[in-house]
Design goal:
single chain, 106 residues, mainly beta
């Protein structure tokens, strides 16, 4: 399963749980530019603006278009890179009506 971020709408919220049991909330601000607000893990105790670069696979390849189960989320935060542990699960915030193209089997 993956969420294809380039087909999602602005202000959508995705909740990601990683292998290290960290929970991240991602709110997409400008999908076309990768602008995201993120909260969770040890670096983001409150919502912080970041640049979402994509999901990093085990072989080091970067998928800019999706959040993949098993991939590590990669962000630019200030002048540093933040890479999470592998994604275990992901879900959508049920508050908003979301486009069905955002979720697709991987």
């Amino acid at each position: 399963m993956a969420i294809h971020v380039d087909s999602c709408e602005a202000q959508e919220t995705v909740v990601v749980t990683t292998r290290s049991t960290s929970v991240y909330e991602l709110v997409f601000v400008r999908v076309d530019r990768g602008d995201v607000l993120v909260r969770g893990g040890r670096y983001f105790t409150e919502f912080s603006p970041v640049l979402f670069l994509g999901s990093v696979a085990d072989d080091g390849s970067l998928n800019r278009d999706a959040i993949d189960i098993g991939g590590r989320l990669k962000f630019v935060f200030g002048e540093q890179f933040v890479i999470t542990s592998p994604v275990e699960s992901l879900s959508r915030d049920g508050v908003r009506a979301l486009s069905p193209e955002c979720a697709a089997p991987h």
